[in-house]
Amino acid sequence: MEFKLIHSRSSVYTIRLNEVGFSAEEYSRFKFGDKQVAKKFAIELFDHFIKENLHRIKDRNITIYSSPYVTLPTSSFYLTEYFYEKFKNDYSSLVRNIKFEKINRNQTYTVDYGNLAAIERYNLIKNDTYSFNNLPHVNDFLIFIDDISITGSHQFVVESLLSKLEIKNEVVFLYFAKLEDSNVLPSFENELNYAEIKSIRELSQLFTTKEFGLTTRAVKYILALNDSDFDYFIESIKKTGKSKILSLIYFSALENKYGEIDMYRKNLLKMKEGNYSE
After folding, report:
1. Which domain holds residue 74?
2. Secondary structure element (H or E) that encloses residue 221, with its range
3. Residues 57 and 177 in one domain
4. What is the distance between the alpha carbons of residues 274 and 278, in angstroms, rounded to a whole number?
């Protein structure tokens, strides 16, 4: 399935057969919450954006969005947050105002999105309910940021929302990387997602680093673990003296409505019984 996108996809890197251009291992850590990598990627993304768009943003109001989420952020939220901070710190004098806004997403799923083909991706997300926290001002320059674009399905859904609301602002869809090679299957995204974080052992180590932020991917991965792997995760975190992370996972999962999903209830119950719900 090929999506007819209204806007072009601007990216730092273009993925082709046997050519990625960036570290797959860093990308994998980023997807599971490594904020140090998110900051590194954000700097590259910002430099790319400025090079292409400096002439378009002078004396404008800028509104920036990360990919849609419920409450628990995706990894692209941290990428966008650092992008916003760099914009505000380095270029705020060139624009009138810079805002960081949110697109709400009111559904979630257990299927690993990165392993799906284009039509499967669209069928999965087409019934999602997207909405703006605040509608953009009519003259705002809008920047929609995501870490990677494989089939364009998410952009297609956001563009559909813009059309539905008759939002005709000047828009940029900005990605760290995009796939532009029909010889590469969309499921290649999962090879990147798990290039370094291959098991709960690598994820447990990542959780204890200073530069870590919870992501939907990490929490869903943990809640779907089998008994032995889940017990290993709990004990490994307890040994580090950072048990507060477990409470954060528990409450973040509930806020993201994961308690309504059968696949996640067992481990959520174990966390509650272990007093990590306090």
Report:
1. 9-193
2. helix 216-223
3. yes
4. 10
Residue 1: Cβ within 10 Å count: 14
> With the C-alpha atoms ordered 256, 259, 261, 266, is the resulting torsion angle positive or negative?
positive
Measured between alpha carbons, how far is 261 from 226 in angstroms, rounded to an integer? 16
Nearest alpha carbon to residue 153 among 182, 198, 186: 186
Give the predicted TM-score (pTM) of the model. 0.89
Distance separating alpha carbons of residues 104 and 93, to the nearest angstrom:
30
The answer to whether residues 9 and 149 touch, using CB atoms and an 8 Å cutoff, is yes
Radius of gyration over every alpha carbon of the chain, rounded to an integer in angstroms: 19
Residue with tokens 């008759």: 166
- Give 3-state DSSP helix, strand, coil % of the chain, rounded to 5: 50, 15, 35
Residue 225 in tokens: 């673990």
Q: What angle do CA 126, 63, 39 make, to 5 degrees?
A: 85
Q: Please, where are the H alpha helices in 23-178?
A: 24-31, 35-57, 75-91, 118-125, 153-164
What is the SS3 assignment for 128? coil
- For the stretch 198-252, pLDDT in tens is 999 999 999 988 889 999 999 999 999 999 999 999 999 999 888 889 999 999 9
CA 53 – CA 143 distance, rounded (Å): 11
Q: CA 149, CA 175: separation in Å to the nearest integer?
A: 7
The answer to whether position 59 is within a domain reads yes
Q: Is residue 278 part of a domain?
A: no
Identify whether the C-beta of residue 197 lies closer than 8 Å to the C-beta of residue 206.
yes
Show the tokens assigned to 32: 């599971």
